[in-house]
Amino acid sequence: MLSARQFIGAGTTALSLIAGAFLLALAAGNARAQGSAPGCDAAGEIAFLPSPWAPWKGAPLRVMLVTEKPLQGELSLTGPDGSVAATSRERHGGPPYFWFTEIKAPAAGSWHATLTPRQAGAGCGPITREIKVRPDKTGRAGLRGGEHLALA
Asked: Is the pTM of this model over 0.85?
């Protein structure tokens, strides 16, 4: 059993650890904010969501881009032949903010979903993710270059 002194000492140690972790998190957030161009630090907080998750030739391909930040920009889908097949200039919602675009019958191959921000400046370029469209409904494909929803 702990004495009152040991109990208070353990509580103080735990509180110190929590306060230290909080200060480290604040310092890391400040460093990231100071090192980023205005409006461009949201790149790590953008999700590209294809539907279906593993698209195939001939079935509609829908892409939604979602972010908590009020970015201004354009979402475009570029086909395997290099031509822009669809764009979405209008941002919806807020927060979360989103863009939506659709291809009725995509060709098989590598498609690219790109957000081109309107904020020009250092480190504020287009953000692109690859989407593989399969030739048929079998197999597995989907996002490439950041296989998770919250992309860094």
From this structure: no
